[in-house]
Write a structure and sequence with these properties.
8 strands, 15 helices
Length: about 375
C-alpha cells in the first residue's frame, strides 16, 4: 500500500465512522475544549476555529443506521439528511457537541434548528441566516453583522471568553491554505482523473470537516506531493461532471458505481468546503472579509436564487466546459426542494448546448446499487455512439 492509499484509507474510516471517534478523541485530548456542530452546506468555520474550538460539519449518517427515532419527529416525505442528522443526536452519537448552528438554506433546515432546541434544550442552537439576494447592496453588511452575532453568542453561551480579531485572521489564513490545497486536488483530478478518484478526493476532503484544519492541511500537503509519483494509467472512461449533491451527500458506494465507467472530473460534493474561488482577504475586518468572500467569491449553487452576472446557468455551462466534461450527471437528493426546483433549468440549458445528461436521484440511506449500475452503464454506452 502506497502513502496516498494509506492517507485515503485513514480519511475514509473517519468519514464512515458515525460514532465520531476522531472529534471525540480531539476533545478528550484538548481538555476543556468545545465542539461546535454546524449543518450543511456552508458555515464560516474560521469563527469557531479562532476560539480554539473544533468545527464539526454534521452531514447526516449516510446508510449506516436507521432513523426510527427521527422518523417519529419529521415527516417521511422530506430529505434524508435532516432525518439522519436528528437521529445522530437522538441516538446520543452527538452528545459530545456543545453547540449546533443551522443555516437557512431550506424550510426543513430552519425547522431542524427548532426541533434541536426542543429535543436538546441544554445545547446551544441557533440559525445563521445567509443572504439569498447576492446582488443587493445590503447583502455584505447583513452577513458581516450575522457573523459578528454568531461570534458574540459563542463567546457568551459556549466559550466563556472573547474571540479576538487577530485570532480570526490567523484562522482565515489556515483555512485559505486548506482551500488552496483542495483546489490543487480538484485541478489534478480534472486534468488527470486516473491519479486520484472522486471517492478518494471526497474522503480526503470530508475528513477535514471532522478534525482540526492544521492536521488536515498536513494530510493534504502530503497527498498533493505524492500524487505525481503515483503509478496509474488512463483508462477508457467518459468524462462527466456531477451536479446536485451540494447538501445531502450520496453514499460512497454510489460514487464507486459511477466511477466504474466514468471519470468524475468536477462536482459540487461537500460544496461548502471548496466553494470560494479565491483566498479570503487576511488583513482588515475579518467578518467583512468573510462576508465578501461568500457574496462575491463563491461559485453558484442550487441553494440560492443567484442573479449575479453572467447568470447561474451561464456559470454552470462554463463549469462543464472548464472540466472538459463529455456529459453531465444531474443527481439531486430525493425530496430536496432547492435542487429539484432548479435541475430542470439545467436540463434545458444542456439540451440547448447539445450536452448529454443523465438524471439520477439518490438518498443517502440507499443500499442497493444494481439499478444504478445498469443506468450508468447504459448511459455510457449511449454516449459512445452519440
Amino acid at each position: 500500500m502506497g502513502r496516498v492509499e494509506e492517507l485515503v484509507g485513514r480519511c475514509r474510516s473517519i468519514v464512515e465512522d458515525i460514532s465520531f471517534q476522531e472529534p471525540r478523541r480531539w476533545k478528550e485530548e484538548a481538555g476543556d475544549a468545545k465542539v461546535v456542530g454546524h449543518f450543511q452546506a456552508y458555515f464560516p468555520e474560521e469563527i469557531i476555529h479562532a476560539g480554539g474550538m473544533l468545527p464539526l460539519k454534521v452531514a447526516g449518517g449516510g446508510n449506516k443506521m436507521d432513523t426510527r427515532r427521527a422518523d417519529s419527529r419529521i415527516a417521511g416525505f422530506t430529505c434524508a439528511i435532516c432525518h439522519s442528522s436528528l437521529e445522530l443526536g437522538l441516538s446520543g452519537r452527538l452528545s459530545f457537541m456543545d453547540a449546533f448552528i443551522f443555516t437557512s438554506i431550506c424550510d426543513l433546515s430552519r425547522n431542524l434548528g427548532g426541533l434541536w432546541v426542543l429535543n436538546f434544550p441544554d445545547t446551544y442552537a441557533r440559525i445563521l441566516y445567509l443572504p439569498q439576494n447576492l446582488t443587493s447592496e445590503g447583502s455584505i453588511p447583513f452577513l458581516a453583522f450575522q457573523y459578528r452575532q454568531i461570534k458574540e453568542d459563542l463567546e457568551e453561551k459556549v466559550l466563556g471568553r472573547p474571540i479576538s480579531e487577530d485570532a480570526l485572521r490567523q484562522s482565515i489564513a489556515v483555512y485559505n491554505t486548506n482551500r488552496r490545497l483542495l483546489r490543487q486536488l480538484y485541478d489534478i483530478r480534472r486534468e488527470s482523473p486516473w491519479l486520484i478518484s472522486t471517492v478518494e478526493l471526497y474522503s480526503l476532503m470530508r475528513a477535514g470537516s471532522l478534525m482540526r484544519r492544521e492536521e488536515h492541511n498536513r494530510i493534504l500537503e502530503e497527498v498533493v506531493a505524492e500524487l505525481p509519483r503515483r503509478e496509474a494509467k488512463p483508462r477508457d472512461k467518459i468524462r462527466v461532471m456531477l451536479e446536485g449533491p451540494f447538501c445531502e451527500q450520496p453514499p460512497l458506494e454510489f460514487l464507486e458505481v459511477l466511477e466504474e465507467v466514468c471519470y468524475i472530473v468536477d462536482d459540487d460534493l461537500m460544496l461548502g468546503l471548496h466553494w470560494f474561488k479565491e483566498d479570503v482577504k487576511e488583513d482588515g475586518d475579518p467578518y467583512w472579509n468573510l462576508a465578501v468572500a461568500y457574496v462575491v467569491d463563491t461559485d453558484y449553487t442550487l441553494q440560492q436564487h443567484d442573479e449575479r452576472p453572467p447568470g447561474r446557468d451561464a456559470r454552470f455551462l462554463a463549469k462543464v466546459k472548464r472540466a472538459k466534461a463529455e456529459a453531465v450527471i444531474l443527481s439531486p437528493a430525493k425530496f430536496c426542494e432547492p435542487a429539484l426546483d432548479e435541475i430542470p433549468i439545467f436540463m434545458k440549458e444542456l439540451q440547448k448546448e447539445g450536452v448529454l445528461f443523465l438524471n439520477l436521484e439518490f438518498e443517502e440511506k440507499m443500499t442497493s446499487f444494481d439499478q444504478l449500475r445498469t443506468q450508468v452503464e447504459t448511459f455510457a454506452e449511449a454516449l459512445l455512439f452519440y
